[in-house]
Prior knowledge:
Shape of chain B: globular
Largest interface: A-B, 24 and 24 residues
Radius of gyration of chain B: 13 Å
Low-confidence stretches of chain A: none
Radius of gyration of chain A: 13 Å
Number of helices of chain B: 0
Oligomer: heterodimer
Order of helices and strands of chain A: EEEEEEEEEEE
Strand content of chain A: over 45%
Structural class of chain A: mainly beta
Low-confidence stretches of chain B: none
Mean pLDDT of chain B: 95
Structural class of chain B: mainly beta
Helix content of chain B: under 10%
Helix content of chain A: under 10%
Largest sheet of chain B: 6 strands, mixed
Number of strands of chain A: 11
Distance between the termini of chain A: 37 Å
Mean pLDDT of chain A: 95
Largest sheet of chain A: 7 strands, mixed
Amino acid sequence: DAGVTQSPTHLIKTRGQHVTLRCSPISGHKSVSWYQQVLGQGPQFIFQYYEKEERGRGNFPDRFSARQFPNYSSELNVNALLLGDSALYLCASSSRTGYNSPLHFGNGTRLTVT
Amino acid sequence: QKEVEQNSGPLSVPEGAIASLNCTYSDRGSQSFFWYRQYSGKSPELIMSIYSNGDKEDGRFTAQLNKASQYVSLLIRDSQPSDSATYLCAAYNDYKLSFGAGTTVTVRA
Lengths: 114, 109
């Protein structure tokens, strides 16, 4: 079975631009989460979606938004890019929400903002 | 105070030895705990999950949880060069995982 797929794998943008990152969960998984990982740190939670509804949001500015589609795929949008947004953006899926539903990560999108 | 803290690395162990990784968490409401392995330039890969106090073994990996001490550990037995990676400890609470900064392990051949 295919794992979590993310696109694109790499992206270079200029400050002030907008970016859209895409994620397809593992087949049958209904929950998608987004994390940001900057070099040398652990991933930081951005959003969780389950059954197309936002279930949680991390401490990120309103420039970050996301949505989940009827087929459970998801998009992360970042407006007005800053240099500090340069990071590895990870999408993770799980079969359901809850403490006993581990997250499985995709290969990530590496975003560079110049 | 960070939600999840891991012992500072890097940790260098000889091939065949035991690598011991430690993690503490601050939120007593954390319900489950995970260890992820991350190779350089790659995404995190789930290697262990633990939900209740005690030990959990899976192959060469053993996770230990002590909720009273808010402590989680991971032992890697018979370490192999392929175990060289950064190990991330994560605690689950309220729909999200909180990660530590990771401990980098190098296994010397």
